[in-house]
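Subject: Interface between my chains keeps coming out wrong

I've been trying for a while to get a sensible model of this assembly. When I model each chain on its own everything looks fine, but I need the whole thing in one frame so I can look at the contacts. Pasting all components below, labels as-is. Any help appreciated, I'm running out of ideas.
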Amino acid sequence: MNRINPLYLLAFFFLLCIGSLYSLTHAKDARESARKSYEETYSLAHDLQGLRNVYDQKEQQQKSLSLLLDHPSLRSANFTKEQKNTLWHVRSTRLDKKQLDMFLGKILNAGYPLKGFSIERLDNENATIDMEIQW
Amino acid sequence: MFTKSKLPTLYVDKDTPSIQPLQERYNVILSPSLYWVKKLTLPMRYAREVKKLLPSIFEDLLPEGNYSYYVYKHEDAYIAFAYDDREIFSLLENKGLSSNSVAKIFFAQNVLEGITHPIAISQEEALFEKEGIWLSLPRNWVESPQEIDIETLELKHPLTLSTFAHIIDPKIFVRMSAIVLLFTVLFVGESFFIKHQTETIIEEKNKLFESYDLKATSMQNNAMLKKYTSMHEKQTKIRSVTAQILSLKLPPQSFLKHLELKGENLVAEFATNDAKKLLDSIKKLDFKHTADTKTDSLRIEVVL
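Reply #2:
Try treating it as a single job with all components included. I did that and got this:
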């Protein structure tokens, strides 16, 4: 004989259903949260990688700067390079317009972390430059 | 279908006196006065097809109430029953038989199958068969009924009473339960699927840490990003302001004397005899500045 009240059974099934719906909602929230976290991490990683590719290239940039200072076109500018740990001090007491253009073009178009510089006009054709790069 | 039970058997009628149960459990035979029975000859092959028709077949016969139906095939006909579960339970309880003390319930019609003579049930009641249907009649209406030991009867077609049929129609209950359980299964299934997706996303996120060489915590990574972003903003501004100053179209007899970046300040000094015009040109540029104008020179300072 049926001794369990069907309403109790139905209530139990409804509770099960509500429980599973709650579990589903919770699972959806968890997925949304995981997805959001993934997107944030991806965005952060992507941005960080982009910035590192520009500013975290110490050795490559130092090598590239050394090559620039040794460039035949800049040889007559007599650049001097002074290194103090991660700070590089680059100077030329006389360089002409073309050399200044070339030097500034190379420096400003690359990701050298400039700390400071001073450019002083000497005459119509020449100038001095004093630049600090801090890695 | 056939039950040979060692449990004692009781015949229950509306007029049966209250029973003091001596045994734990009883088989119960219901008097014809507790159900409606019809012998049907229908062109149906299966009893389940006939059962669907029973509510309409008994419709005119039954008082208002909730009835259950039962049918089985007997020779070329169907023996169909209509009964009120609640009323039978109520009667049994009134007679002192709780649902726990009832093992199985049988219709008198079924267990008396094969008997041809009238049966004396008590001093007042007798059972009489007419055209295959057993009827309950006053004993004095029946000619020479015979006493019978009901323990010797072969118990056939036990009945399943639905205790709660009056609360909810079993069909509706089954349908509702099926729908609710179906949704439950769908929800649970989707939950598992989503949990699997979540695990995959978390794994992919962990792979990002390896492939992008990130630090262990997001706090460290955010701090690093902040450092690089700040550096990038400053370096971009240095380059932007410097480029704008160097590409500035100067008035005649004017030139840039000195350009200096020191700390957060970028200072430019121009030699000019038309400081106003030069200053107007500088004002059009995309940076904020302070200017110090003299007769033959202009000094501007930009805070980065």
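Reply #3:
Confirming on my end. Helices of chain B lie at 47-58, 85-94, 108-111, 170-211, 218-246, 275-283.
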